[in-house]
Amino acid sequence: MQRYKLTIEYDGTPYVGWQRQNNGRSVQGAIEAAGKNFCGHALSVRGAGRTDAGVHAFGQVAHVDFEKAWSAETVRNAINSYLGQAGERVVILQAEAVDDEFDARFSATRRHYLYRIINRRVPLAIERNRALWVSKKLDADAMHEAAQRLIGRHDFTTFRSSHCQAKNPVRTLDRLDVRRTGDLIEIFATAQSFLHNQIRSFAGTLRMVGEGEWTADDVEAALEAKDRSACGPVAGPEGLYFMKVEYGSEES
């Protein structure tokens, strides 16, 4: 058996999410089917994180075991060929042979996400399903100031889905920055791990700050409430991107 680390890019629009499910196409299922067509045996592809329906990735990472050792380039190109033939919106950016101790999920030390908001009066055409459209003018500086209240180690019960399966709501948030460039507002989030819907909950809450409905103090009070009902509206999945996973001593 040979294990490979896969770095994956995908457009999440047509998928029910990363995880294999019975109710539609998944990114995991697409890669497993393509891999099986290549090697001739069933595969189990394990990702560094699960993304919901409509969420995208520039740098999702997964691992997979093949019964035979192939060159990394052959693995990448063969899987991409079958993904292309199937019309999937998924590509393998890189394949790398790794030892059996590598685990895409449990070996990860930091995960990086991006949430994109297009803040303009007119609706989106090209960016539709690629960003959240907000027509009301947002104060990105106020959003950034409020975001800093969430940095550090906290109980993030307020900012996780009621269906979150994590046993512990405590996480350490390393980064939550908000930047504006023209009509584009970007929210950058970094942590070792995130709770279900945590970043989309942040984005929806910070949008309220940007619109002047909440202040930074309101965000801090919501955090301290440790109550899901204290959270702002959850932002849509279309603006969320899984950007990168770090392992070991890697630096962003």
Number of DSSP E strands:
10
In angstroms, what is the radius of gyration? 19 Å
Approximate helicity band: 10-25%
The CATH architecture of the largest domain comes to 2-Layer Sandwich
Number of helices: 5
Give the tally of structural domains. 2
Main sheet: strands, sense, barrel: 10 strands, mixed
The average pLDDT score comes to 95
Structure description:
- By secondary structure, this protein is of the alpha+beta class.
- It folds into two domains: 2-98, Alpha-Beta Plaits; 110-247, 2-Layer Sandwich (Alpha-Beta Plaits), CATH 3.30.70.
- Helix content is 23%, strand content 31%.
- The chain has helices spanning 27-39, 72-85, 140-147, 198-210, 216-225; strands spanning 2-10, 46-47, 56-66, 90-98, 108-119, 132-134, 152-155, 170-181, 184-191, 240-247.
- Helix 1 (27-39) crosses helix 2 (72-85) and helix 3 (140-147) packs across helix 4 (198-210).
- The two termini are 31 Å apart.
- The model has no long low-confidence stretch (mean pLDDT 95).
